[in-house]
């Protein structure tokens, strides 16, 4: 069933990329179990869902909590970007997610990385959030949806699993593929990343 405000199921599907992470227990179990359960729910929001392996990664920023379990998904969905984000937030809530502290421990974190070739709110707005200094990133949250995720190109814990499900997806602003972005990361962005199986 599509959430309120979603497009009709007969609407053309767009590819969507989603990052998953957890470093605290949820009602569904520990982080790895939670991500596996969440993948089933996310897959129901579209078709042709592809899931990466689970990866362990240090908490970001360093020292902010226990290690994370991360993964990525790609799927084709008839949902609009706002409707898909709303559906992802509803899944987070079912997994006990509470937004008390930015970048704190979380039972489930679902980030909409990209929706088709959309750039939201526009290229200038996207660039402003991409270039936001780290200290402001830790304090400020955008009021509107920013797509593609403004820092996906900087994060090994996003790009490494994403390359397993969408290696050839091309960033609509930079033109770089996921593989190229992953391979261009500094060595430090890969530190501590290891597959769980």
UniProtKB/TrEMBL annotation:
Pathway: Cofactor biosynthesis; tetrahydrofolate biosynthesis; 2-amino-4-hydroxy-6-hydroxymethyl-7,8-dihydropteridine diphosphate from 7,8-dihydroneopterin triphosphate: step 4/4. GO terms for molecular function: 2-amino-4-hydroxy-6-hydroxymethyldihydropteridine diphosphokinase activity; ATP binding; kinase activity. It comes from the Bacteria. It holds the Pfam family HPPK. Its EC number is 2.7.6.3. Keywords: ATP-binding, Folate biosynthesis, Kinase, Nucleotide-binding, Transferase. Catalyzes the transfer of pyrophosphate from adenosine triphosphate (ATP) to 6-hydroxymethyl-7,8-dihydropterin, an enzymatic step in folate biosynthesis pathway. This is 2-amino-4-hydroxy-6-hydroxymethyldihydropteridine pyrophosphokinase. The lineage of its organism: Bacteria, Pseudomonadati, Pseudomonadota, Alphaproteobacteria, Rhodobacterales.
């Amino acid at each position: 069933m599509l959430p309120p405000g979603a497009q009709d199921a007969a609407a053309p599907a767009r590819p969507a990329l989603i990052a998953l992470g957890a470093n605290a227990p949820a009602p569904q179990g520990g982080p790895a179990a939670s991500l596996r359960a969440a993948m089933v729910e996310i897959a129901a929001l579209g078709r042709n869902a592809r899931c990466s392996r689970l990866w362990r990664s240090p908490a970001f920023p360093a020292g902010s909590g226990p290690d994370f379990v991360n993964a990525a998904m790609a799927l084709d969905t008839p949902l609009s970007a706002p409707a898909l984000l709303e559906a992802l937030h509803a899944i987070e809530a079912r997994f006990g997610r509470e937004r008390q502290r930015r970048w704190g421990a979380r039972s489930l974190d679902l980030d909409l990385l990209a929706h088709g070739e959309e750039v939201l709110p526009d290229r200038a707005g996207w660039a402003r959030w991409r270039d936001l200094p780290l200290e402001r990133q830790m304090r400020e949250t955008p009021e509107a949806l920013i797509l593609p995720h403004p820092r996906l190109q900087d994060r090994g814990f996003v790009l490494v699993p994403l390359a397993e499900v969408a290696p050839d997806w091309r960033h609509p602003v930079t033109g770089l593929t996921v593989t190229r972005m992953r391979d261009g990361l500094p060595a430090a962005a890969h530190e501590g990343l290891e597959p769980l199986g």
